[in-house]
Write a structure and sequence with these properties.
Blueprint (H helix, E strand, L loop, with lengths): L1 H9 L3 H26 L12 H9 L5 H10 L5 E4 L11 E5 L1
Antiparallel strand pairs: 1-2
């Protein structure tokens, strides 16, 4: 599979590859949200502060407000940490916590 991805990426511009990776990460985040909820044995209809249809929409979104993500995770008894880092850094020493709720 990795060889197929590398073959496709070799035919794309670096900017197109970057955009594709960002889109893939957004898709993966939507999947991870529903997996997280399911791992905690919480049904969509059991999420406090959200209707079942709202939870369904959130879990399908590829772009989500940070405030909505915080509320969603809070309903699962989870927190959120956003870490910034220089993309070209070799070390994690330059990481900074931007948000920890």
């Amino acid at each position: 599979m990795k060889d197929a991805i590398k073959a496709m990426e070799s035919k794309m511009s670096p900017e197109a590859v970057r955009r594709a990776h960002i889109k893939a990460e957004q898709d993966i985040m939507a999947i991870r949200l529903s997996q997280l909820r399911e791992e905690r044995n919480v049904k969509q209809s059991q999420m406090s502060n959200f209707s079942q249809s709202s939870v369904s929409k959130i879990e399908k979104r590829k772009d989500i407000k940070v405030s909505t993500l915080i509320d969603y995770l809070d309903s699962l008894g989870m927190g959120l940490k956003i870490v910034t880092y220089p993309k070209m850094a070799v070390s994690e020493k330059n990481e900074r916590i931007l948000l920890n709720v």
